[in-house]
């Protein structure tokens, strides 16, 4: 009877999956068809599948390791104990850099969007005021805890799926299959562009900062956590595939260089799609979709940053402690976005490299060390090796791109 009551009280896998999917799938998905245009659909499909599998494995490796520690123990605690203080310091800097830069980017990019919407609704607000209002709202939700984040994530993800269907469902009936599977034009090849796409795919499945919160949320229930990770990342993969089929199946590959030269952003891509979308309220629906995409990723990223800072400082979980952690999580990126609204462009290029470290390399190393220390830790040398190889390949791709040794499709 007691076991039955306890099982009934377990949170649904759906809530955790929504946190993962909401974190992973954001406004950044609009860049995928643009950066994948050179490699085109076949390679894009393969790279997404490989990246999804590798990032899911790295998340599961971290989860297995974390279950051998007290509830709430995060990256810093595990890394310091298993790999030493130097690795912990390096890993901590990489997490703070990536999550901090993303938080800064979401505040900087979303402020003008929300200002425009509020002004149209008759609420006069400056860009700075919109940024502050949005940040305070998100901070309040994160301060309340994982349950509040998961509820809003669920609403945002479901809204995004519905809007995607409304916006692009008609495109599926217009997809040009020969264009998707056609060979490269004479004198060209798809494969030279493949390696340069890989870091973008890795960044498209970054959710590892949320695993600590899920372990606490599910009270260390390994099967529930694993299913939430699998379902959340699988739903993200499905949304990505749906998106690239709709875009690549309707926009010829030859049209993407012009999109790249126009900035490769949402506006440039949607301008190319406009002739194929038979929806009179396209502009309004795109605006609504962008709102949901940004707020979901904003919540997911900042929840992960909040958990890391809380674990690092060890302030506890009282309302006062959570308030202090929230201030450290949100105030620095907010202040930076107010004084340097466009400064993240130079730094964001390095985020992928640091993400490879803490979301791929470190989870594999932690699992390897945990196998040596804990007798109950599952032996998974093959999985660890595969994840490490994926990480090394991504670092190599990033360095080659940074050195300018990889071709860029559509660049002048």
Tags for this model:
about 400 residues, mainly alpha, Amino acid/polyamine transporter I, disordered N terminus
Describe the overall structure:
This protein is an all-alpha fold and 412 residues long. It has one domain (15-402): Amino acid/polyamine transporter I. The chain contains 18 helices and no strands. Helix 4 crosses helix 17 (344-373) and helix 6 (85-120) crosses helix 7 (127-144). The longest helix is centred in the first third of the chain and has 36 residues, at 85-120. The termini are far apart. It is found in: Cell inner membrane. Keywords: Amino-acid transport, Cell inner membrane, Cell membrane, Membrane, Transmembrane, Transmembrane helix, Transport. This is Aromatic amino acid permease.
